[in-house]
Amino acid sequence: MPAKRKKTKLTKKEIEVYREKVLAERERIIMELGRIEETINDATSGQDGSKRSYSNHLADLGTDFMEKEKNFYYASQEGHYLRSLDDALKRMERGIYGKCEECEDLISFKRLDAVPGARLCIKCKSKAEKDMRGR
Question: How far is CA 56 from CA 48, 52, 89, 99, in A?
């Protein structure tokens, strides 16, 4: 009985399924970034005082500042995620999508379903996170 060969890359059909997922996720992120940008612009345009309908109480100003910082943080996180999706599309073009960049094993379908832009398998990602925390 011949030994079962280990699968080394995704099929074209599998890649197309993930390409659709990545493109859909990319579209969702772009819409979310647009919403965040609108929120930031609304908050910024209201700072000149002409559109402000609430008091200049220190607590209100602190809340406004915190909301603005939160939106900048969300925009930054979404931007990183968008870049990871763009990188995933590039890996699909090069035919290496779904392959762990550390151990070169295939990344599980479960992980790609959860994180379509994943570059590492769960084992290597866990190891990288432990190393980053210094454990």
Answer: 12, 9, 47, 54
